[in-house]
């Protein structure tokens, strides 16, 4: 029997044969140049128009947090584990990262505690993301997260997975704003750190755009009034799941209406996307999800672009193979042979960009043991030397 989180990871994870960035239109797929006068000028121009890029200050009931980086790595069930996060931090040491979502009731029953209790290794800000429909369980889980060193506690009100939403958790809370607000209040009064919410524009798409934007604003205002200190808004409804384009204009309406920081999420896959999104939404920052799968450097690249620093170059094929080996070794050290199963999807996203990459990935996916997979990675690195 699959847990709801495993179900979520399977339902949300794309088929691991194609790099997520390869699914974007050709014009968005150009490699990110490290430098170059044109890019530099474009960046300066863009930055002049982004006055919202400043430190984020979040006040919890007794603890205040400050974020120097306006790019957030999104929680990704089945992906953003401790090992993945450590890779993201190599390029983005100051970014706020999130645990995979954790179910409060499961925590109460003793399952999934590792995800909350392993925070002591974390060298930068880490948000614990919780989901459930029971305010008391959420408050208890939040206390546990705070005791483990969470920088903040985030409440998931966007997960579209049927099994979760049907029980009233994740995006299911959009249909029950009173319960959603009780959960925010209950969590906010249980912990001293700031409480944030990650949500979507609504449950389903109203026929008129104005109504849709108005509904999104009304929903987000309720969360702000209940005590959320920051909102991340994925610019899609639950009905859309991951289809269609994220509606950044709707996020702009939410940003304009709220006093707390608003983070824009959805379809940000490059520094240029981030700049365009911030220009359109005037949001206080961006959160990046699928674009980081197989590309743990992306958050750092976007951060550099927004801070006016040179954008670190995208690792070439050999560096990617090396990263894949490191990730596999770390996963096997912590998870035993099961680590190979987890590593497969990461390796299929990372091992790209060289002649014969597709055949190589097919062979790699069939490697029956971690040692055999590591040997293949090593041989391919040597071939590319
Ligand atoms: C594999 C996968 C797992 C996800 N897991 C979570 C999660 O645990 N919590 C959450 O709030 N959102 C989760 N999401 C949604 C993303 O965080 C993000 O909101 C969404 O993908 C849109 O952003 P993007 O276009 O940058 O990917 C997940 C998405 C995917 C594809």
Topology diagram in text:
Elements: H1 4-12, H2 37-48, E1 56-59, E2 64-67, E3 71-73, H3 82-91, E4 97-98, E5 102-103, H4 104-108, H5 113-117, E6 126-131, H6 135-147, E7 152-157, H7 162-166, H8 177-190, E8 195-202, H9 209-226, E9 231-237, H10 248-257, E10 262-265, H11 271-281, E11 285-288, H12 298-307, H13 317-335, H14 338-350, H15 357-366, H16 370-384
Parallel strand pairs: 3-11, 4-6, 5-6, 6-7, 7-8, 8-9, 9-10, 10-11
Antiparallel strand pairs: 1-2
Helix pairs in contact: 3-12, 6-8, 8-9, 9-10, 11-12, 13-14, 13-16, 15-16
Bound molecules: flavin mononucleotide (FMN).
- Under CATH, the topology of the largest domain can be stated as TIM Barrel
> How do the helices and strands follow one another from N- to C-terminus?
HHEEEHEEHHEHEHHEHEHEHEHHHHH
> What is the overall pLDDT average?
90
The CATH architecture of the largest domain is: Alpha-Beta Barrel
Rounded to the nearest angstrom, the radius of gyration is 20 Å
Return the domain count.
2
In CATH, the homologous superfamily of the largest domain goes by the name Aldolase class I
**Considering DSSP H and I runs of 4 or more, what fraction of the residues is helical?**
40-55%
Biggest β-sheet description: 9 strands, parallel
Bound molecule kinds, no repeats: flavin mononucleotide
Give a count of the beta strands, DSSP E runs of length 2 or more. Answer: 11
Distance between the termini: 45 Å
In one word, what is the shape? globular
What is the top-level CATH class of the largest domain?
A: Alpha Beta
- Strand percentage lies at 5-15%
Low-confidence stretches: 13-45
